[in-house]
Amino acid sequence: MKLRVVAIRVGKRIIYVLAGGLAVLAAMQCSNRPTEVADGGGGSEAVALIGSFEYPDHTPAAMARVRLRPKLFLSDTGRAASPEAGTVIDAVTDASGNFRMDSVKRGEYFLEINDSSSRGLLVPCVLTGDTSEVKLGKAALQPTGSVIGSIVPPEGFAGRTYVQVYGLERQVKADSATGRFSVEGMPEGTYTLRAVYSAAAVDPREIDSVAVAADSPDPTDIGAVRLASFENENYSAWPQSRRLYLNTTAAGANVAGNVDDFPVLVRLTRAEFDFSQSRGRGRDIRFADAKGKRLRYEVERWDSTAALAEIWVRLDRVAGNSNTQYITMHWGLAGAEDVTDSRQVFSAEAGFAGAWHLNEDAPDTVTADLYKDAVGYDPAADRVASADRSGVIANGASFAGSDYVTVPVANPLLQPNAKVSVSAWIRASRTGSIAGNILSMGDSYNLRLNPNGSGRFSFFNGEAVGVETPKGVNLLDSAWHQLAATYDGTSMALYVDGKPSARAAAKGPIDYRFWPSFVMGRHGNRKPGYDFIGNLDQIEVSGETARSADWIKLAYESQRPGARLVEFRP
Length: 570
Fold this sequence. Notes:
Shape: globular
CATH architecture of the largest domain: Sandwich
Low-confidence stretches: 1-42
Structural class: mainly beta
Radius of gyration: 24 Å
Number of domains: 4
CATH topology of the largest domain: Jelly Rolls
Number of strands: 41
Strand content: 35-45%
Distance between the termini: 66 Å
Mean pLDDT: 90
CATH class of the largest domain: Mainly Beta
């Protein structure tokens, strides 16, 4: 077993301990707060989870209910919302307040402890399989709270509204007349709620960062949450509209072939758009194709003050070598609800395994799940101390040599068997002593910069197989570049700024015998000397998908500064 330093979040404090895996939590006076264990490596597929609970007066919390649920668990599905269900276990503490759960698959979980006297505890934990047993130690139950609010469905629908809590066995029905709801017995912690309507045409809505405090006498009130029906919207009711043309001819993006199921980046500035005509954060923005089909979109940034916005719009097809295709942007409808949804744009069905805009920010370097995964499965934990937020698309993240971003236990989408595509925007002038890792799935596949300025993509199929950009390519020139790579089962290819750069023969499945973590900014297996030094933005992984040369070219031309794909014609 490898000994290493593990970071443990205890409330707002971080404690570092030497451990062979996840550590004893309560041994460091953390029993009064929910605890999060972060970081980890790979090993066995399942572990035993052991703990003990008591009351503040140190009497055992006997016969308390203990529930383990994957972080993305939703009670109506009876499984995790992620591609891998993880482990769902119920237990009860014994007379001494102890419990044990065996055969827990590695993953990210919420462990909830609740007694019959309105006391409980939430323990978010990451089980990496780095050790066969995880001992949580002893912790004290605290008073539970509640979350209240109301759900307002769109007009013209008759049905029922339900509220769920990610990671907990919770589903409550809102009052049919008032929409009011109350979720009781919530341990102290921060949650994401999901409001879902019984009519399929009404879109679910998530409410994140809902905080419940153990020492608060009042419930957490999220107010009124309004639902919308995207598929039933009538864009003729929107007072403002404008056509946006897609130019893939030589005068535009210069992409010859058709590209299907593609997220087009639309940039808005005051030169193209009057931000005073739209509601805050672009809640009223909508898009449709030439036939009137409503197009799903995600607002990455909407800054009315600076008159800047970046919006991803998913198209069924972008026509190659054309300058007549257009989409229509609509805005200005008072009362329009926000229907931006990254998961509908960077969908798993379209081949995406993970996509991180790296647009978020935090005042510390240990924020769990800070960098949201646009695909919706794998938010990445913050380990970035640098304050530089420079990016190509809105903000990005800067890595100062010891910084990194990690998904402690990646879902199976990030572990494809025979095909994979990766890409990232990079800006750097130097690397670590050996190289600069941009991204890596453990030591199974990785994209990196070499000290001579070349780029390298490799994967492990029993031995390391790689491809490098040719001599003369210098990616360490302090300029922004997009570096992309593909493996299609027979060959590997590298692309620099949308153009093919190198290709090499390769075969065999990708071997995932090593660490389960997906890491940005350092070696996935924690080997020293591979720190990325510079800026990263828009990191994407496509699983069991080898993107075409036209796809990669279009992605570069859509995202680069000064892009000529989208045209705002008079």
